[in-house]
Amino acid sequence: MSSGSLKSHKFRSDxxxxxxQLESLLARLESRSIGALSDAQLIALPALYRASLSSLSVxxxxxxxxxxxxxxxxxxxxxxxxxxxxxxxxxTRISRFLRIGWPKAVQNMTRETIASALVFxxxxxxxxxMVRTNMDWYFSFMPESLIQTRTPASTIAExxxxxxxxxxxxxxTSFASFLFSHNARIAIxxxxxxxxxxxxxxxxxxxxxxxxxAFVALFVDKGLGFEVxxxxxxxGATELFAIVLAGAAGMKIGWAVAFPGQRARLDAAxxxxxxxxxxxxxxxxxxxxxxxxxGFGRQLVSNDYVRYAIGLTTFCLWLAYFYLPxxxxxxxxxxxxxxxxxxxxxx
Amino acid sequence: MSQETTNQNKKKLRPVKxxxxxxxxxxxxxxxxxxxxxxxxxxxxxxxxxxxxDLIIMFLVLVLFNIALNAASQDMKSGGAETAAAIWFLFAxxxxxxxxxxxxxxxxxxxxxxxxxxxxxxxxxxxxLTANAIFARNALRxxxxxxxxxxxxxxxxxxxxxxxxxxxxxxxxxSFIFLLFPLFNKDRLRAxxxxxxxxxxxxxxxxxxxxxxDAPKPRDGQVRYIFTPSQIDxxxxxxxxxxxxxLRKNDAHTIGEVTERIMxxxxxxxPDKTNNTPTAQGEFLNAYYxxxxxxxxxxxxxxxxxxxxxxxR
Lengths: 347, 313
Prior knowledge:
The complex is a heterodimer.
Chain A: H1 7-31, H2 39-62, H3 66-84, H4 90-108, H5 110-133, H6 137-141, H7 144-147, H8 156-164, H9 171-192, H10 199-221, H11 225-258, H12 265-300, H13 304-323, H14 329-333
Chain B: H1 2-13, E1 26-30, E2 36-40, H2 44-75, H3 80-105, H4 112-116, E3 119-123, H5 131-157, H6 164-180, H7 191-196, E4 198-202, H8 229-232, H9 237-249, H10 252-265, H11 278-301
Helix pairs in contact in B: 2-3, 3-5, 5-6, 9-11, 10-11
């Protein structure tokens, strides 16, 4: 029996060049991006992929050469991920996220956003009323690190100075960046804790509301209500909105885990998670902007009316950006994978 | 009486639970072309190793950045140190959160640690691995790992502030729950994978080695080994694959042993002197492999897959 005459050997040697070609294309694609391939190579890629898929199914049925089957299996899986994976450029991805992905995800959780905002303001109102009736509550709501010189024992002049001078100029950037990463973590936790039926997220939002309420109550008590409003709103319109959105993202996941509807619980959680993550990604951007407004905007602008104007304008801009209805094709096509049912592909 | 027998029948009908399944890590993915591909779920060990490698890389980057920042801030006048601290905080935050995201959004869908361990992230539904999914799975990392880590570190370094021992204890319990989470579900999902709809699979990059049936012919051009049909019929597919592995490993000692065993089994005429050298044994095994594969593949074409040597078909 001559060894070269095996059918499976002939099968392999006839197609081996195609497989090698696919392998080298994949190596180029994976090491850089889709731009690394020429037009001719791009056209060849899906054809080679289908050819190797067909080789795989023939090999499974007719060849007993383990090596070939395992090789083809890994090659086609790589090619599958390369072809059906996401090959969008980073710039396109970011622009699409800003134009469509983010506002659409926010619109999809309007219900949760309203709930989250209610919880936040409930906390604020609660703390405000409690601190107004008894100043001792102030210390239970505020963490030590944020109290600094702002205590009920401070004089009006001292409190007023905290509103217009945020410490030294040189400490400014440090303060802003600390606050940014601090708030960003709170937002991430409000999102991430959502899977425990959203209860921790709600508590976190409630507590943040309490802190704001207690803080405002202290200044109102000293007759600085209008001033503290300006101090807060210039960056708070962005920052508090962001935290409310992060809480809403957590609630979305928690709701999906608790009440998955017709889907499997895991499936529902994953689906909600993808949308909530889009919102959270935006929240981080908002917090970054809020950090800038807080660090630089508030430092440079000490007029109360201008502060209110800036704060309210940014708030209206955010509302318009998120909720203005859009009606173009790309908007409707985006995020189809949220609705399409993929779970049947797996057995 | 009759009731008793039906009861016995019911007992017999109860399915037997398999105790060990070697393929339990394999998941089937059907491509749009209708072919089933097999994905292998990455093992817990590989994932932990990958994560540790990533942590080490991040730590080194942070140390280098620190050195560079120190050098730069000394050039500046007053206030340089505080600006440097601000930059450091921002850099640490971005590194911690975006290291994983940027790499996993790339074409390989894997961080350097994962690449070294030959694993990658994939969408559980088989569809696109979206940026949102990657964002979600990594945002939860903050909760799973970095939060308890910061608890523990602050408890160690600022122990004068509060009950440090309790913080460490709670932090450890917290991180253990999340750390062990992947071990308690069959897809090895961590909490982040659960929310994001992703999983981590093996992505080995294999190269095609040479076909064993294509062994070089003996130099004198003669076909030295001719097997009778009954000699070839001694084994099935399972043994063929074992033989293939042995030939690929090419360990002289094993080849010698296996040659002897096969020669005994198929009652090969007493080997002459030349057949005792390792090269001759290798040639013999190669020839037998080719013959066996040819035979089994022919059967396969007629729809018979002879499982192993006990399968008499």
